[in-house]
Specification:
This protein has two domains: about 5-195 and about 220-275, no CATH class; about 290-360 and about 395-720, von Willebrand factor, type A domain (Rossmann fold, 3-Layer(aba) Sandwich), CATH 3.40.50.410. It is built from 21 helices and 23 strands. Strands 9-15-13-12-16-21-23-22 form an eight-stranded mixed beta sheet, sandwiched between helices. The chain is elongated.
């Protein structure tokens, strides 16, 4: 049974409590970088789940507890140190995570069954002391020791520091060398003895006396013995006993005294679990720290540019028609604002009601020190004679961040989207909630018509510092701060009006090149929120923040930074496209690794999951206005293309012309029909209209109102 690394990697993250990063690479052995705190693990493709849990737990133990020192300076052989250190770090990791005891027991049992230590067929007496200690602490309960050897076994289990490990390894090595020397001397003496005398002096075997795991003599009975593999006190059955005499050596096997053979054999055989010809090595990516001072374009800069371009349209005769279109939009704005008052008031009412209900739900009642005279007559049977006071806690400070899709595909729904946005903005203004409206674009610098376009030196990026395997924020990316609660009343009104005009004339956006519709850098916008959110919360002292993303589709592709070696040997800074089948997003602070579902929208979903976990106090809400033909694809993507579920949700869509989705990365993702919302709330018919025409117009008007109220009510439920 093979291992799915994206699933089993959870184990490593649970164990890695000290800012430890776990990566699976096509390597032969595990390694740990102390400085970067990155643990590289081989891709044990052929390991069972038990063996995999054991190996990960073991290597994480080394990463957490083994210091980064040069062991060559110590007197003991490196394999001796490794054996004793393995026992120490496994004891410590099981002490820290007791649930690993079972994983270690089962994993080592499988390795013993498959003879990974290569000791099957050997008598216990043919195995050196260091190898027996290694096998004993790796779950082989058949190991026995003489009284003299038992002291080293006990010391191994009691080591707490790496220095103690090295000192003990040197002691064991010295003891084994001394024993080797004594055996050689004994052999020399035996060679000088006559054969008859030798036979008479040979001790009788099979006397029934044996040595248990504690080094004490027993009468051969079987009894349960505690084993270090179980720190929680579980017992294992003892195996067959062996004569003390047999521990002194064997004729068929010459013990190795300078190397732990079982340690060497295990390392060699673990390589058989690795199949580097299969699968694809994962590229682990991280979210960069974004420079908001370069990413965000202030409202002043945005609308100064708009005013300058509008004045140019007015001055040029061949553009006068476009100028008139702008003026017509101003008039339309006034009409829309007047008609939107009902919806805004409805939002205010919903918000205040829900906020008050939440406050009362948190209300507490406490006794005062004042007697309630109305209860004095009940003193014989009632001890509660004091007045009570209800304490209603103050509501939380709210804030909203709006992210508006300023891409070319929004051209058909931008007007209706901006209408919904303005309703929410006016609501925020009325209830005095701080907010900012950002539109993401790639055109602000790309279409720059003056000398302000940034020229960065080679290797430097405008919005972030270059670092390998960080997501790349393109230098052309910007967030246009269209509207802000910080603006004065006059400025706020003008900015709302300008945004409405731009939305109404989006097809003529070439008149405003730097404000023209762009690609869809939605992912870059989400990444930027990692910096924007803390700044917003700090500035406005916000406790509850809602971030609303208004878009019509999926994000464009995103790249990541990676250095490479040039022909002349110099280090060059390049970037590569994010591939969902070979990349994962990693957050070191959270200890989380996220794998993508698909190429198209997988990264967006992962970025939303990550930022939601990083800022659990923030609601991330999606609002998507769609044409009818886009609904099925939108819903199918959220169900991971489950056709039965898609069909079920499509029936809801056709009936309501809206739907609220959960499994999308957002707290809630609202899909709304652009055509339905485009219908005016007013009930208008021609004078010569028939009864059926009047009926249809009235029904259409009611449906639009019903849809708006339904969506807005759900929206208020989330943000209040």
């Amino acid at each position: 049974m093979t291992v799915k690394f994206e699933i089993k990697d959870q184990l490593a993250r649970l164990l890695a409590t000290e800012d430890l990063i776990v990566e699976h690479k096509k390597v032969e052995t595990a390694s740990f970088n102390v400085n970067s705190r990155v643990l590289i693990l081989p891709m044990w493709d052929k390991a069972s789940n038990n063996v995999y849990d054991l190996l990960v737990g073991h290597e994480v133990g080394h990463a957490l507890f083994t210091p980064n020192v040069d062991i060559s300076k110590f007197k003991a052989p490196s394999s001796f140190i490794n054996v004793v250190e393995d026992a120490r770090i496994e004891k410590l990791i099981k002490r820290k995570f007791p649930g690993l005891c079972k994983s270690f027991f089962r994993g080592y049992w499988e390795l013993h069954e498959q003879d990974f230590f290569e000791v099957q067929g050997l008598e216990v007496g043919d195995i050196s002391l260091i190898d027996r200690i290694n096998l004993y602490y790796k779950g082989n309960k058949d190991m026995v020791f003489s009284n003299e050897e038992n002291q080293f076994v006990d010391k191994t289990g009691k080591t707490e520091t790496f220095q103690e490990v090295c000192d003990l390894a040197a002691e064991i090595h010295a003891f084994m060398k001394d024993q080797k020397k004594k055996e050689e001397e004994e052999l020399e003496k035996l060679e000088d003895v006559t054969p008859d005398a030798d036979m008479n002096d040979t001790p009788q075997s099979g006397s029934g006396e044996s040595v248990d795991e504690d080094g004490e003599e027993s009468e051969g009975e079987d009894e349960d013995n505690s084993h270090p593999l179980f720190d929680d006190g579980d017992k294992t059955e003892s195996g067959s006993s062996i004569s003390v005499d047999n521990l002194q050596g064997g004729d068929e096997y010459e013990k190795e005294i300078d190397e732990a053979l079982t340690d060497k054999n295990l390392s060699k055989n673990l390589e058989s679990l690795i199949d580097n010809s299969m699968g694809r090595e994962t590229t682990y990516l991280s979210v960069p720290s974004v420079k908001t001072e370069t990413v965000v374009v202030s409202p002043q800069d945005v609308w100064d540019y708009f005013d300058r371009k509008t004045a140019e349209l007015e001055a040029e005769e061949h553009h006068f028609y476009n100028y008139q279109a702008i003026q017509y939009s101003y008039d339309e704005y006034d009409s829309f604002k007047q008609s939107a008052k009902k919806e805004v008031n409805y939002l205010v009412k919903e918000f205040e009601c829900r906020k008050s209900a939440t406050a009362y739900a948190r209300a507490t009642t406490s006794r005062t020190g004042i007697l309630d005279t109305t209860k004095l007559h009940t003193y014989k049977y009632n001890e509660d004679l004091f007045k009570k006071i209800s304490v209603i806690p103050e509501g939380k400070n709210h804030g909203l961040i709006f992210i508006l899709d300023w891409s070319g595909s929004m051209n058909f729904v931008l007007r209706d989207t901006v209408k919904q946005l303005l309703n929410l903005v006016w609501f925020c203004k009325k209830v005095k909630i701080p907010f900012n409206v950002y539109a993401f674009t790639n055109e602000w610098y790309r279409n720059c018509d003056d000398d302000r376009i940034p020229q960065m030196p080679y290797g430097e990026l405008l919005h972030q510092s270059f670092a390998d395997y960080e997501l790349r924020i393109n230098d052309t990316f910007n967030l246009l701060n269209m509207i802000s609660s910080d603006s004065s009343v006059k400025e706020f009104e003008q900015h709302c009006k300008n945004l409405f005009c731009l939305a109404c004339n989006s097809s003529n956006s070439y008149n405003y090149p730097r404000l023209s519709l762009s690609g869809t850098p939605l992912n870059e916008a989400i990444v930027s929120l990692h910096s924007l959110i803390p700044e917003f919360k700090s500035k406005y002292k916000v406790e509850k923040l809602n971030t609303i993303i208004l878009t019509d589709g999926e994000s464009q592709t995103m790249g990541y930074n990676k250095s490479y070696m040039g022909r002349d040997g110099e280090t060059l800074h390049g970037h590569y496209s994010v591939n969902s089948y070979g990349c994962s997003l990693r957050d070191r602070k959270l200890g989380r690794t996220y794998n993508f579902d698909n190429d198209w929208s997988g990264l967006t979903k992962v970025l939303l999951q990550n930022i939601s976990e990083k800022f659990p106090e923030v609601n991330f809400i999606g609002i998507r206005l769609m044409q009818g033909s886009d609904a099925r694809r939108f819903i199918a993507n959220s169900t991971n293309y489950d056709y039965d579920m898609t069909d079920k949700m499509m029936r809801v869509w056709k009936k309501q012309r809206s739907i609220a989705l959960d499994n999308t990365g957002y707290k809630k993702y609202f899909g709304m029909s652009a055509a339905a919302l485009a219908n005016e709330d007013t009930f208008e018919v021609q004078q010569d209209a028939t009864k059926s025409q009047i009926k249809r117009a009235f029904s259409k008007s009611l449906s639009a109102k019903k849809l708006n109220k339904k969506i807005l009510s759900q929206f208020m439920e989330l943000i209040a």
